[in-house]
Amino acid sequence: MNIEFNLDELKVTDRLPSPSGTALAIMQLVQRSDATVQQVSQLVKVDPALSGRILRFANSAAFGARRPIADVQTAVMMMGMQTVRNFALSLSLIGNSGSGHCRRFNYEAYWSRSLAVSVSIAAITARETTVVPAESFTLGLLSDIGSLALATAWPDIYDECLGAAEGERLLALESERFAIDHKVLSHILLADWGFPAIFLDALKLSFEKKIEGFNRTADFARQLIFARLIGNYCVADEQLRAVMWTELTAKAALHAMDESALLRFIDETVELWHDWGKLIDVKTDVRDSLVKNAAPEPALPGLSLLLVDDDPMMLARFSKQLAAAGNQVATCRNGESAMKYIIEHKPQLVITDWRMKPMDGLALCKALRASAFGKNIYLIMLTSTEDEDALVEAFDAGIDDYVTKPVSLRVLLARLRAGQRIVTLQNELEKESQDIKRYTAELAAANRRLKSMANTDILTGLPNRRYAMARLEQESATAQRSNQPLSVLMLDLDHFKSVNDSLGHDVGDQVLVHAASLMRENVRTSDIVCRLGGEEFLIIAPNTDGTTAVLLAERIRNAIERNQPERIELRCPVTVSIGVAGSKGAKPSWKELMKRSDNALYLAKQGGRNGSRLDSSS
């Protein structure tokens, strides 16, 4: 369906996978017409990790540099600013979305498979030139970003979808719950991030798997399908690999590979896959985790707490006693090891001694309160002093409570119970917050479905007249701002009334659905096909002048004439008359454009039907 999915509501809630930091700055800079290689290079240099990865990428087999590239500016110049931009975008998304809240969505397996696809498509495009391998690498990495977006934006609802369905059934369930599926959302996100049209068109074709003819876009789409199959093969277990091998060899034949050549290619791809996994922090040993994540085990009673002290006797004594009270207890000997443990395991409560080396308890408290993951951890300080100034300093650093040494177990347990009440309250508030987010997401999804229904023609599945008028006004405003051309095609099926009169409205409906399907298949990705009502259709062609729009009209007319409905005995073939009108910038207005295309349609009808006519003033 061509109805546009509105990203604005998700962008403002910051729930979509999105670039940040250096990557976002690079994306914003490259969008400027006056951006220079030097400016992009300076931004890359700000991030040492990105600098190293850019240099590795520039010297990789995927890029195919003829000589070693040693400095960032040369790398940016050789790769091109758009390639650097897209690569930085990919790394940023990986860093921001390595984990999440959707329980059944396997984040590690998702990025592992995506990396396998990206390495595969880069290697394939290096063998069979369609696009630059370095650019295809990025598309492969982000080609399934829609599934990550659904898991990120609506983790609870998408978890239910993943639990209820797999494969193609999952797409239907996604459309039912979100009014969009992950393939369409992938396409929308990549378009929003500024990926080239050939990437978007090829990706759409590879999803639909309806590829005809041999041109650059079609060839790239076939390469994407092959790369996706190799990516699935990389992460599959041995049993599944055996099942996949037949299809893989059949697809390999289309790329001039026999079985031995395919084996060599896969071996090389897997080696690169592991190398790139180490480079960009993506695990490539997650085959077993592709199985649905099991439901988490219920938490044990009591608190998940960390005890930090450099006294081994203290740790041994109190860890045993706190565990006996029903808590899950872990121990660390200093602030540095405690910080690492907290990052990985996120305990609910931390009990820490003050005086330790190399990082003491006060520094640990300050570091936790300065981080997003440590703001809500309940902190109890163990101290041998009751000096007011020292205690004020400790509370300013972020502690919630303190216990003086020598520590009384009875007092410590009492403080823990107080802490537990706070932790329980925080958990309840978090649950309420999650429930509100869930209800909001469900309401937003329901509103999108209702909006989609209100803007959709039930019979053909195309956008209806209401959507057509609103979208045409929007595209006209865009054309006016950018001084770009805009064309409108008005289409009318010839002699359609005779079909309804002689064969009945059921057959007439079949003819309408058939014609609508052909129109959808023969327009470009950027064109919008709508049904105005009855046998009348409208196609909006952004950034297209009248002369080019006539070529589009002729392609559609020929397709309808050549592909007649099957199993219907019509008295005369289905044909279409098309009126075309074009504008540039603000002239004429969209209403006048509609009127002119309608006049051109009338002339096409008068000229004998089954033809297209361009408005004389276009």
In short:
This protein is of the alpha/beta class and 618 residues long. The protein is 60% helix and 10% strand.
Question: Can you give keywords for this protein?
Answer:
single chain, 618 residues, alpha/beta, Rossmann fold, 4 domains, five-stranded parallel β-sheet, five-stranded mixed β-sheet, 10 strands
- Measured by DSSP, the beta-strand proportion falls in 5-15%
Q: How widely separated are the two ends? A: 29 Å
Which bin fits the share of residues in helices? 55-70%
What number is the mean pLDDT? 84
Given helix and strand content, the structural type is alpha/beta
Question: From the coordinates shown, what is the CATH architecture of the largest domain?
Answer: Orthogonal Bundle
Kindly state the number of beta strands: 10
Strand order of the largest sheet: 2-1-3-4-5
Radius of gyration: 30 Å
Largest sheet: 5 strands, parallel
Count of helix runs: 26
Report low-confidence residues grouped into runs of 5 or more: 288-300
Can you describe what's shown?
- It contains 26 helices and ten strands.
- It has helices spanning 8-13, 21-30, 37-46, 48-58, 72-79, 81-96, 107-127, 133-142, 145-153, 155-164, 167-178, 182-192, 197-208, 216-235, 238-253, 259-279, 312-324, 335-345, 361-369, 388-397, 409-454, 465-482, 496-503, 505-522, 546-562, 590-606, and strands at residues 304-308, 328-332, 349-353, 378-383, 401-404, 485-493, 528-533, 536-542, 576-584, 612-614.
- The model is unreliable at 288-300 (pLDDT under 50).
- It is elongated.
- The strands form two sheets. Strands 2-1-3-4-5 form a five-stranded parallel beta sheet, sandwiched between helices. Strands 7-8-6-9-10 form a five-stranded mixed beta sheet, with helices on both faces.
- The longest helix is centred in the C-terminal third of the chain and has 46 residues, at 409-454.
- It folds into four domains: 18-96, no CATH class; 98-294, Hypothetical protein af1432; 304-429, 3-Layer(aba) Sandwich (Rossmann fold), CATH 3.40.50; 465-614, Reverse transcriptase/Diguanylate cyclase domain (Alpha-Beta Plaits, 2-Layer Sandwich), CATH 3.30.70.270.
- It has 618 residues and is α/β, with parallel strands linked by helices.
- Helix 7 packs antiparallel against helix 8 (133-142).
